[in-house]
Amino acid sequence: MSRRSLLEIRNLRVRVNGQEILKGITLAVYPGEVHSIMGPNGSGKSTLAQVLAGREVYEIVEGEVLYDGEDLLLMPPEERARRGIFLAFQYPVEIPGVSNLHFLKAAVNTIRKQRGLPELDAMEFLALAREKAKLVELDENLLQRAVNDGFSGGEKKRNEIFQMTVLEPRLAILDETDSGLDIDALRVVAQGINALRHPDRAIVLITHYQRLLNYVAPDVVHVLYDGRIVKSGGKELALELEEKGYGWIAEEIIGSPRS
Amino acid sequence: MATPTNIIEELVNREYRYGFVTLVEEEVFPPGLNEDIIRRISARKNEPGWLLEWRLRAYRYWAKLVEEGAEPRWANVTYPPIDYQAIRYYAAPKRRPKSLDEVDPEIRRTYERLGIPLEEQERLAGVAVDAVFDSVSVATTFRQKLAELGIIFCSFSEAVQEHPELVRKWLGSVVPYTDNFFAALNSAVFSDGSFVYVPKGVRCPMELSTYFRINASQTGQFERTLIIADEGAYVSYLEGCTAPMRDENQLHAAVVELIALDNATIKYSTVQNWYPGDREGRGGIYNFVTKRGKCLGRNSKISWTQVEVGSAITWKYPSCILIGDNSVGEFYSVAVTNHHQQADTGTKMIHIGKNTRSTIISKGISAGHGQNTYRGMVKIMKGATRARNYSQCDSLLLGDKCGAHTFPYIEVHEPTAQLEHEATTSKISEEQLFYCRQRGLSAEDAVSMIVNGFCKEVLRELPMEFAVEAQKLLGISLEGSIG
Q: For chain B, give me the number of helices (H) and strands (E)?
């Protein structure tokens, strides 16, 4: 019996400021899977993440993206979020004056509403937030502070993972969440990701380095190079990249990506 | 493509919700202003001779200013000349109730639609209301209960009849009629307003509030509010205001005077939501207001909080004259200009007494073609030793057709004084909006949340009943906004 993919990208070409960044991406992610997308700087990794989340500065030249069988590209960003897509930002944004808790409570309740669940009241939400904060070892003081305002780089990344664990997305896309983290923070982030793993959910890890994959074992590893997925494989591909760098990929580009 | 610009445009384009007109029979004076009109206003109110004389002196002073062409032009706002002879200076419902039960059902319904029920038992617990409809007060709730504590809360007209000695002593003592053009006009023609006196050592147990409603067309509203907090007294006072949607511009020129004696505190909060005009800038209220408080006593405190979202033009500077040693003045302001609204607002803190302190927090938000100006003066007189001021002016721009302007004036004649001034200008970024939307929030909710975060330091100064309303109002007034 064939399962239906949660995310299906077909020949996606994307342009920004007249320049083509994604040059025909084809990729299928099934529920329960963890995919890792690796590649050198400028290969289009972040663009892919942003396009999937609905950032409007990108121009779709060609291709389609199906999410749970529906046309994702027609949905505004908030619709995608409400249907369970979560993007952990590479550069989380600061919102002065808006408390982290207040912000996340609004997000949780909007999403719950969409799913036909009752909204959480202040006490219920606080209990949930505290539990998840503990899981990702987020300092409780940060809950009361303004969203990412004055957070260190590590705190911002941890806050993204905290939000993710509270929102329990069906498809989580993590855009270089591991970069700039020390080893302890990396372990905690991995803990948050692993806690989210579930047969109904899928996770896409966008990363530059292999080291996060020591903690989170991916089912599939893709190599993105110059806007194309040039190689896909198992966990061992990540180790090979770590060992040889990205240089050899350039020489080896042959054949078409796995579809 | 949905950019933050057109998202906010959509946001700000929602309709004004209080634009209806109440059909009620009103007595209106013919348009125009002369000594005869002033005599008629005074006679209608059965005023004592000294008050009529005071009005006439103010009128003559104002007429002289008109003759000299001395209408002020320095504010950073533009509008066509006002024809003062085309305005009606008095409009009042014909049926005058003697008690709360007798309030005209139409007027009662009007206040209900505005969310201000006039029944005492239905009112938010702990808020007494004086309802001013065009030129007159139509109802004041909880008067009995307050009277038991010796607190006087009534319409200005009643205060003139029942407490003439207090009115005579303090009227014009903070804002004399010679103060400025609009204060002179108001002093000549003011028709009603609220009066508060809190006796020695009494802490007023409920919020006092006045709800101003303009209803009649071609009519100006000129109310006068006088609040006196005797030694050791405390009072928190709120005002709200709305008006019907009309193509014409209507003038609202009020005067507010506050007096705080030794150890007294007055907290004065405003949520101003006069009709702002339409998207093209047609119609709306000209809100030209003089508000000032005197901290006469030692350790006294006057705190102004204002949320200004309405009016075609807002022109006001709630100020504090810090005379008593150790007295404190505060000004917390949020001013929003959207579409073609203009605001020139800020404060004056005049330090005279020793160890006087003042704080100014101003948040200006501009959207659409709105122009928002902060103008503030901090003046430290010789002898105001160790006076301190902290000022913070932040501007938030939504879109690229609006403007934010800051004019701080600082004058220091006292070497031991300490002043700090901080200013920032920022925009709601596309990144912030996208981040919020990626978490499931609609663009409208995201803008509202970001704006409320920006204003947080001011909103938290509002009494709770008002804070919630003000937050919603900020969201609504920016609907359809980045332009």
A: 12, 23
Residue B459 belongs to some domain of the structure: no
Domain that holds residue B181: 24-428
CB contact at 8 A, B42 and B51: yes
Is A104 in Cβ contact with B438 (below 8 Å)?
Answer: no
User: Which residues of B are less than 8 Å from A93 in CB distance?
Assistant: 429, 431-432, 434-435
In a domain, B242, yes or no: yes
Q: Is the complex ipTM higher than 0.90?
A: yes
Q: For residue A5, give the 3-state DSSP assignment.
A: coil
* Residue B47 located in a structural domain: yes
Number of inter-chain CB pairs under 8 A, A vs B: 79
Task: Please state which of the four CATH numbers 3.40.50.300, 3.30.360.10, 2.130.10.10, 3.40.50.1370 is assigned to the domain occupying A7-254.
Answer: 3.40.50.300
What's CA B93's distance to the chain center, in Å? 23
Amino acid at B453: G
Residue-wise pLDDT tens for chain B (483 aa)?
344 444 444 444 456 777 777 877 888 899 999 999 999 999 999 999 999 999 999 999 999 999 999 899 999 999 999 999 999 999 888 776 777 777 777 777 777 777 766 766 554 556 677 887 776 776 777 888 899 999 999 999 999 999 999 999 999 999 999 999 999 999 999 988 899 999 999 999 888 888 887 777 778 889 999 999 999 999 999 888 777 777 788 899 999 999 999 999 999 999 888 888 888 888 888 999 999 999 999 999 999 999 898 889 999 999 999 999 999 999 999 998 988 999 999 999 999 999 999 999 999 999 889 999 999 999 999 999 999 999 999 999 988 889 999 999 999 999 999 999 999 998 888 899 999 999 999 988 898 899 888 988 888 888 776 777 777 777 666 665 543
Instruction: Name the residue among B324, B386, B322, B394 with its Cα closest to residue B358.
Output: B322
- Chain A residue numbers with beta carbons less than 8 Å from the beta carbon of B434 are 53-56, 77, 93
What domain count does chain B have?
A: 1
